Here is the input.
Amino acid sequence: MDIMFWVKKVVSQGIMPIPFILLLLVISFLVWRRRSMAKYLVSCAFFLLLFLSSQLGVNTLVRQLESAYPINSTPITGACFVMVLGSAHSDIQGATAVQSLSAVALARLSEGVRQLNLGQECKLIVSGWGGELTQVSHAEMMANAAVELGVDKRRIIQFPLARDTIEEAQYLQWELGEEPFRLVTSATHMPRAMAIFTAKGLHPEAAPTDFIGRDDFWWRLTADNLVASQRAIHEYIGRLWLWLKTVS
Here is the structure.
């Protein structure tokens, strides 16, 4: 299981935009004597970088993902659980937990706190391991940040061993069974997350956040757009991986 987990991570990173574009350029250099092929590869790399760095590219990639579920502001009645999926954080000396969270993690946690306020006596569930790079698990860092944002620590449940969305769903199944809950994650990630959680027999209600599609000049080229495109591509790869697991 551990080997397949890391194989998935390595393969998915290898076909992200920047590594893939660099690979095209390296191959074009190696076959430079075959001028037509080399020019074709360089052209592909150039236009791929151009498209993925543009707002047009971002919106094209994320439109289907982010339109699947609307913002959720419906009051929560009855038993109330809010599951916030993990992202990333850094061990920054002297920083608060909130300051240590990545932008994606902070966006998810902020929405999770907002969802808590839509119900009565809700419990917040946070998850994520340390990734072997940080001293504190992501679940603990998210819990500490939630406390800094005013959440009672007695209302927080942590899954510090969950490494990905599939494992988060498994831990939640053990914790909640068939109890309904609000599922908070990035809008691009929500379709895949909903598929994973419902496949486990759980009953999530989507509460997306961290939308990256923007109304901007279509031709605008930025590094932020390249990062946004990478996040969208990561989701499509994740959905493909999930489909392959179901048919194998």
In short: The beta strands are 81-84, 123-127, 156-159, 180-186, 203-209. The chain has two domains: 7-66+221-247, 81-208. The two ends are 15 Å apart (CA to CA).
